[in-house]
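quick one, 255 residues, struct below
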Amino acid sequence: MIDQVTVSDRRQLCSAFSAEEFDEDFPPGYERHYWHRARSAIVKSYVFASCGPGDTLLDIGAARGHYVSVLRKAGFDAYGCDLGGPWVHEEARPFVFPKTDFADIDKELRDRVTTVLLLDVLEHIEQPVSFIGAIFRALPALRSLIITVPARQELWSNYDEHYRHFLRYDVTELRKLALRSRLSIKSYSYFFHALYVPALLMKKLGVSRETAFGAPKASRLHGLLGVAFWIESQLLPKNMYGTSLICTCTKDSPI
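---
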């Protein structure tokens, strides 16, 4: 038995996207959108800061595997899994396991995983403390988590409701979660700072967000915007509000 939380229990703790939701949120070409270009670079910088070349990474909720591809191209031993059954990018298919719970991955791989990525996953989890505990019990070599979440509850919108979010996080809520999960936050930062004010104005004016996205038509413009948001994330203060939040956590030593 892997842990005290059964696979059935874990599936109740988290929610998989349907095929329609994958198509809405991750249409063909989504990886060229400025949002994913910038987030890829930001996530990669956190991975470089906390992981070594011999580390094995597992992206839980990997969707189509874009971030697994990005990290493998950067030289990391990266894999992914997802409870849903999306199509996966061809270059990532040998390393991404759809319709697979993290505890059902081959034991030899589970025993190697030292870092888990939860990229916009925890907002879908009703009991995140139990979920994080199950991850650590299933992955015995796990040392750290790299987490991204939608930020700032005042930005709550129809988008959050459409994708069944439970919460948009701020630094205080993230610290509460870390404390309850016996984690230490080693680094954190808001990002997509420039999107905060427009998102807040949309909320104040009652303007609904799009919940389905098409592939970007102006790929070069999206590339430039991705670079701009990456530079912004490096220059602006980490506590300056943004629409997303990232952190690296490590497990506290037993008392």
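Residues 1-13 have pLDDT under 50 and may be disordered.
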